[in-house]
């Protein structure tokens, strides 16, 4: 829901701008005619003038959340945690992700070789964990910049032979800003010059105090090369997940986020999605970013075709009309026409933004029903 100017509102209410300004003042808001006021204020002022403002969903980034049905506690089921790996360059993020995947994806399984779909799931102690394997901080930061909250837990990788570096601190700040729990993986423990105590000492300065030093942060010594400590790391992830109780409702239409998307020569628009709530099914009509699509086929992280994907599951989806952006939200609509309408409106809105049109909503927008 975007703002509109005092002048716009006055016109809408068929009042002089000065009257509206006066009313605003009486409500404690000082504003000039060209000033933008938010929707709450608009409603308040309008009511003062005896007009009812029907603010229907204005299509913006957060609109999907507003469209989602609330879940009752009984409908909520446990879902796997979604984990992101962050840390300084060369501290072993990629190696760790590869190691976890190799050790935990059973080789005997059909299609045991994982394919890259931006995220993968492993099983430990009969529970699933979803790892985002989009490189570097990109996944986390671009998605967050777009307002998508994807990560439940962050693994902060710090090389024991190198200690805390600028990107380590950056990662801590991102995780803190997002209020995401941090587990520290002290990596490269196989190296003779490994000095885990120095890592602990340095991180203490950033308020990450190890449990054995009286703090609350879990530190796990690992080696992404030898595989030492990987099982413990996964156990700690499950422990945090148990405490945090991540839940979702698998019995409704799906909503989630685009992890990656690209145009494939043979297959058309390919979108890698993370289902965050509900269950995504082949045949579902969805809007991702500003694009409409019908899920033609879904492929899981083992390269297998699947018919459905429940909460925290990453899938590759074919059938979108165009390529959405990483971090774009997606949502399934039971009504295909509605899905098309919404996609069209989002395209229009995007176009206006790109044309440099001001961010204020038009009067039409305010009354628009979706
Ligand atoms: P990233 O930039 O954080 O993704 O780091 P990489 O995973 O690319 O690792 C950087 C270098 O460190 C590579 O040469 C890895 O082989 C090496 N490396 C990563 N983990 C370990 C480890 O646990 N032990 C040792 N000895 N080397 C490691
Ligand atoms: Mg890397």
From TrEMBL:
Domain Tr-type G: from-to ranges: 78-245
Chain sites annotated for binding GTP: 87-94, 133-137, 187-190
Region of interest (G-domain), residue spans: 81-229
The UniProt record lists the keyword Plastid: no
Keywords: Cytoplasm, GTP-binding, Initiation factor, Nucleotide-binding, Protein biosynthesis
Entry GO CC: cytosol
GO MF annotations in UniProt: GTP binding; GTPase activity; translation initiation factor activity
Localisation: Cytoplasm
Presence of the UniProt keyword Cytoplasm in the record: yes
Role noted for this protein: One of the essential components for the initiation of protein synthesis. Protects formylmethionyl-tRNA from spontaneous hydrolysis and promotes its binding to the 30S ribosomal subunits. Also involved in the hydrolysis of GTP during the formation of the 70S ribosomal complex.
Protein family (similarity comment): Belongs to the TRAFAC class translation factor GTPase superfamily. Classic translation factor GTPase family. IF-2 subfamily.
Protein name in the entry: Translation initiation factor IF-2
């Amino acid at each position: 829901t975007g703002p509109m100017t005092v002048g716009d509102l006055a016109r809408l209410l068929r009042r002089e701008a000065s009257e509206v300004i006066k009313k605003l003042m009486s409500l404690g808001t000082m504003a000039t005619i060209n000033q933008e006021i938010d929707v709450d204020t608009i409603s308040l002022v309008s009511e003062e003038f005896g007009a009812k403002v029907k603010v229907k969903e204005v299509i913006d980034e957060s609109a999907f959340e507003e469209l989602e049905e609330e879940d009752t506690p009984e409908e909520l089921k446990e879902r796997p945690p979604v984990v992101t790996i962050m840390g300084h360059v060369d501290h072993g993020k990629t190696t760790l992700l590869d190691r976890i995947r190799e050790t935990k994806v059973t080789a005997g399984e059909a299609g045991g070789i994982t394919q890259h779909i931006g995220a993968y799931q492993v099983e430990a102690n009969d529970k699933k964990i979803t790892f985002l394997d989009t490189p570097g901080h990109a996944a986390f930061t671009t998605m967050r910049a777009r307002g998508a909250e994807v990560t439940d837990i962050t693994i902060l990788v710090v090389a024991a032979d190198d200690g805390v570096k600028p990107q380590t601190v950056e990662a801590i700040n991102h995780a803190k800003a997002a209020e995401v729990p941090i587990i520290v993986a002290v990596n490269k423990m196989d190296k003779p010059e490994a000095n885990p105590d120095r890592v602990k000492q340095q991180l203490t300065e950033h308020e990450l105090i190890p449990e054995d030093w009286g703090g609350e942060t879990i530190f796990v010594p690992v080696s992404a090369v030898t595989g030492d400590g990987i099982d413990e790391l996964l156990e700690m992830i499950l422990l945090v997940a148990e405490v945090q109780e991540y839940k979702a409702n698998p019995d409704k239409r799906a909503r989630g986020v685009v992890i990656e998307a690209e145009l494939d020569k043979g297959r058309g628009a390919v979108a890698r999605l993370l289902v965050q709530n509900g269950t995504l099914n082949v045949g579902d009509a969805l809007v991702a970013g500003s694009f409409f699509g019908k899920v033609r086929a879904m492929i899981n992280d083992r390269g297998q075709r699947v018919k459905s994907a429940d909460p925290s599951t990453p899938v590759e989806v074919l059938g979108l009309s165009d390529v959405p952006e990483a971090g774009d939200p997606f949502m399934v609509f039971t009504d295909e026409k509605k899905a098309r309408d919404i996609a069209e409106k989002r395209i229009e809105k995007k176009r206006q933004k790109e044309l440099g049109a001001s961010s204020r909503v038009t009067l039409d927008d305010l009354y628009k029903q979706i």
